[in-house]
Amino acid sequence: MTSVKMISWAEAEQRARELVARMSFDEKMEFIRGNRFSTRPIPQHNLPEIRMRDASMGLRLLKTDVEEGHDLTTAFPSSVALAATWNPERAAATGRAIAEEYRACGVPVLLGPGINIYRFPACGRNYEYMGEDPYLITQMVVPYIKAVQELGIMATIKHFAANNCEKDRKNVNSVVDERTLREIYLPGFEAAIKDADVAAVMTAYNLLNGYYCGENAWLIKDVLRKEWGFEGIVMSDWTSIWNADLSINSGLDLEMPVGETLTPEAVRSLIDSGHSSGAEIDSKVMHCAKAFYRMAILDGEHDRTGFSFGDAEHRQKALETAREGIVLLKNDALLPIAPGAGKIIVIGPNADPTPTSAGGSGHVRPIEPISIYAAMKSIYPDAEHMQELNQAAVAAADAVVVCVGFNHETEAEAKDRTFELPEGQDELIENCAAANANTIVMIVAGGGIAMPWAERAKAILHLFYPGANGCQAAAEIVAGIVNPSGKLPISIERRIEDNSAFGRFVAAADAPVKKAGVRDYKDIEYSEGIFVGYRHLDAKKIEPLFAFGHGLSYTTFELSDLSITPASGDGKQVVVRCRVKNTGEREGAEVVQLYVGDPQASVPRPPKELKGFQKVFLKAGEIKDVELTLGRRAFSFWDPATKDWKAEPGTFDILLGVSSRDIRLQGKYELQ
Ligand code: BGC
Question: Which CATH number is correct for 555-671, 2.60.120.260, 3.30.590.10, 2.70.98.40, 2.60.40.10?
């Protein structure tokens, strides 16, 4: 596909400098304030209106686009499902396909991807993010961004940073110590900048350690720009900066959606009163122009020729991702059920229609969505959609698929959901399981849920939000047409109390009200620190219901021949190798997961952390060798004393497994 000829940051800077020199104060102010979902055009300087649209799981068109004749687009599986593929190639393929839809619709800026950490299952936007582990996020987000930007579409990594709950998101202060930020909440952003050269960053709604993220000079100027060398645009989330003085000096460039805080009047008065030299405005214009020039957005390179949206090719890509991203959590020798065999009842609130995505700015209006029932029917012609539970009929069936979970109203941006399924759903599963032992549960949700019925369900599949045709993949998995290979990018706790942010996920009702200018806020203490997800469950020896990295297959794999060899050069520290064999009778894929542990550290560290993985596709009986390289950073923690990464010499655990709780090979490495 036609890539766009990007220019270097240096060349882009030169052109931006010339532009700034030609612009008046009022023109500069126009350029750094949005116009809803675009920039403001400045025709006298050949600056067009630059359109921006959301894409958590595909291009979200606006009503105005609909008037232009563009309506529905391809809904891809949600980002958490993409992360569940543990396959960076799928991330690249998804990024490319979504970017092609942007090209086809003439939209040069993609407001995504989102990579906030899955800290607690209730967050209404978990579906838009990539799970709980910073390493997995870096490996998935970098190829996604590269693929998007290769087509000249600017990616906007969001929401920077520590926006982990939705309710009251504009009135909460995430209180996070620096080590926790560096090790858990920031690595995805760091990789997006250093490894993927992302051109834009969107700040988060919340305050971070006392400052709104868009007003936070430590976050933007010190970390993002000075330390990581970010050259592009820092834009605010939609109405998220409030204080002109802080915002002008924070390093933020573009105020969205309309620029209510950095108004020309407010900025003039800051300059007149000596709070700003005015140079900050030039630097904001520079950053915006530089990024647009670099992506060739201002050079008319973005023609739509050869691009289409909502086409069969993209739909196929979405299907392929769903096939790899659906996680088979449990299978008590029930699946697969041969195509066409027997009578299967499909029941539950998500049976037909099945929600393709959750709600908010990540919601995509999909072309031709397929429900679980329709997909099952296409493979099992005798399948029946039961609206109201009839236990006798369920008992008489060969199997029952109970379709539960949330939808775009019960799980959405700007609110948080329950860990428990909505009312009546647990009961429906229990009643079906009581009537028919062959009960299969299909979950549609952005993350973990309570499963009090887990023992009684014979098979459980997590679909996350599957996109337009992901239910087809779920039915193919039931039938064994597709061998499942998705792995959880999250931990699923047995009880919500087992999550380390329990009781601190949102601000406490009796937390003192604080003030940031005219705004009230409350603190959320991230006092669990780095012990998020499996890091906490491992440290506290709490058995999860389903562990991070878990996911079943219809075949079996054997890991053997572990070797750990010191390496040098190119930032390499050690090379870990093993052999994987498909010991079953079907073709399948396994994700070899490499965890590193530092049992004798001078600071508290998790028993193990993911530092490498590879998805291996093997025919029955086939053997492949896997090689994973660790750099020094894989052994390091963030040392608050020296404000740097520190790897302490000593003996490290090297663990290879197929989930965080299924370690197959263990070795040691002596770090000098
Ligand atoms: C969301 C952003 C989104 C923006 C524009 C905000 O409410 O937090 O993620 O990009 O709206 O739709």
Answer: 2.60.40.10
